[in-house]
Amino acid sequence: MSQGEAAGHGTAKPQDRGWAWMVLLAAVLLQGLTLGFPCCIGVFFKDLQHEFQASNSQTSWFPSIMVAVLHGGGPLCSILVKRFGCRFVVMLGGLLSGLGMVSSSFCKSISQLYLTAGLITGLGSCFSFQAGVTVLGYYFVRWRTLANAVASTGVSLGFTLWPLLSQYLLDEMGWRNTFLIFGGILLNCCVCGAIMRPIQLAAGSLPQSGKPEEEPGSRAEEAQLSNGASPHHPMLQQHTGRTKCFQVLQKYLAFDIFCQNKGYQIYTIGVTWMMMGFALPHVYLVPYAIHNGVEERKAALLISVIGIINIFIRPLTGLLSGHRVFTGRRIYLFSLAVLLCGLSNFICVISAEFSVLILYCVILSIAMSGVGALTFQVLMDVVEMDRFSSALGLFTILESITLLIGPPLTGLLVDITSDFHYVFYNSSFFLISAALFMGLSFCALEKKNKLREAPKALLNNPSRYQYSETSTESKAENQVPPAVEYITSV
């Protein structure tokens, strides 16, 4: 038995009551500490540029690396959760996050900041957040949907509080001492992890398969052995090594789904392209406002406005999209939210006055709430739930690549032109084109599937999603998801 499995055999805890609500509170704090943290980096943008004499492009690599690792570290987090359990991984993430920010306060160059705050803190935040979300699936069965919705409010709280705290500490003691304090604050992830005690699952609570899955390549190996090949034969050992490598890739990075499922293929490409422009306002909004004469405290307040509105709008969006009226149509709601994000950027181009920027933040926040609430619901619609974890692995890896390169490339354009308007032009281009691509492609795919399956229309279950090439079966509510599950948030 692995240590991760052993961790799951702790003292039995009641599900959906008692200590489960303490775990939910810890999950709310974790999401505020981890997912909410990158939003405050824009507050330090000008100070870091001045300190290290860095360009916009060079400075933007720091938050880009942090966010990319936060989103793309899912497969590694999944492996650690399976091996050591959720509690250990959450606490490990807290230690890494705190260590990264404390080390950042002593950095002598911008490149050192890439390693400490970017890579180490980003990886720690990834571990804490994703393992913290996974453990909710064990503590909640009946109220699992509600628990995840409540936990996601932590992101909005982080968006609200981190920028205000950052600006206050920056004014009082400078960015180095602020980063040092941030290291101490992020160590509270370890406290949240300590609350997440292992829970013993009731017999039969895990999904049971009637027949063990046959591993790819097992038949070929059996055939060679039956023909007299020794299990220690070099050719057989080489084949076995390739088979195990293929199994790992198949488990955490579902390339087969990407090739076979057109719905997943379109959605993954669309979201990956979208992420080139999605993070740009978060990185450059505060520098843009300060550059146009807005007071620093007011500029930091802009990000907090986005967070405050998210607190109320995101849960409402999630509840609305869950209504049966939108069954099979959530992809179009998602595309509409992305389109609104792109169109809202033109408000900043029109004027940089504080009142106009507040209006921009209100509209952007409403659109962002739709994107955040629907991203993974749509993914669950287009892939089978038993392959969701591996499909999510490839999905997050690809989007992390564009999250990494988007802000620095835009920063390079701003350095060349000395015009911050290109931030919002770029963001609008990627968001609007991604929204149109996804919406029109799914519409065409749905029509194609309807024509193909017209003779069988009366036999089909109308509740199934017609834009997916694979039928999706919802898990029973009393099933607990496997420990190897990683979830990100936009």
User: Which percent range describes the beta-strand content?
Assistant: under 5%
CATH topology of the largest domain: Growth Hormone, Chain: A
Gap between N and C termini: 35 Å
Tell me the number of structural domains.
Answer: 2
Subcellular location: Membrane
Keywords: Membrane, Transmembrane, Transmembrane helix
GO cellular component, one term: basolateral plasma membrane
InterPro entries: MFS (IPR011701), MFS_dom (IPR020846), MFS_trans_sf (IPR036259), Proton-linked_MCT (IPR050327)
Describe the structure.
It is a multi-pass membrane protein. GO terms for molecular function: monocarboxylic acid transmembrane transporter activity. This is MOT6 protein. Residues 20-451 form the Major facilitator superfamily (MFS) profile domain. The protein is built from 19 helices and no strands. It is an all-alpha fold and 490 residues long. It folds into 2 domains: 17-199, Growth Hormone, Chain: A (Up-down Bundle); 254-453, Growth Hormone, Chain: A (Up-down Bundle). Helix 2 (19-34) packs antiparallel against helix 9 and helix 18 runs antiparallel to helix 19. The protein is globular and about 65 Å long.
